[in-house]
Amino acid sequence: MSGIEGIEVHDETRERRSDYENSEDERRRSKIGTLKKKALNASNKFTHSFKKRGKRKIDYRVPSVSIEDVRDAREESAVNDLRQMLLQMDLLPDRHDDYHTFLRFLKARDFNVDKTIQMWEEMLNWRREYGTDTILEDFEFEELEEVLQYYPQGYHGVDREGRPVYIERLGKAHPSKLMRITTIERYLKYHVQEFERALQEKFPACSIASKETDLFNYHNLGCARPGS
User: Fold this and answer.
1) 168 by DSSP, 3-state: which?
2) What confidence tens digit (pLDDT) does each residue in 11-46 have?
3) Nearest-CA neighbor of 228 among 147, 145, 127, 142?
4) Taking CA atoms, which of 9, 19, 144, 145 is between 20 and 30 Å from 28?
5) Taking the complete model, does pTM exceed 0.85, yes or no?
6) Are 207 and 220 spatial neighbours (Cβ–Cβ below 8 Å)?
């Protein structure tokens, strides 16, 4: 009888362990599902906001989600100094008043303030001349569906760190057919528009899902002038 009782105790212990593991798996899946839902809701919110009439400031912050933002003291001091200089020179539009954007420009010029300000001013001039600040509302790429037939590309999922993955299927590209549908100028404008859309919709949504500020700022490439 003692052998049978031992087997029963072992089975009961295994069942409790199995129930606990299943419960943990359900909690993890529920947490992942909740984060994905928040990211999707945030992305949908940004997408719908551009479909409404008129122009308004988009606030992609979600108060219910806490995102860790770790800063280096020396970098933060350099950023604050740069920000004050840009304010004094009237080179700081509200939409670009962002800590990590300043830091990215400083790193691009090895924290040389003069070169950073020059790069910043060139970026603002380019955006103004190209109409980048309003390109989401002003430009419509009607030929997109046809273009994708001869140059398949676009975002597809995220990597292991939650960063959006962009894929271009170059082996299926047909430049000659592509140029019958659109022009280099319009195609370039479409890419600039998509960078702006990613900056305002996709990257913040992924940051919300992963609770990482560096995720958004690692991909924050659309503000700088191409090639700079």
Assistant:
1) strand
2) 565 565 555 555 555 655 555 555 555 555 544 444
3) 127
4) 9
5) no
6) no
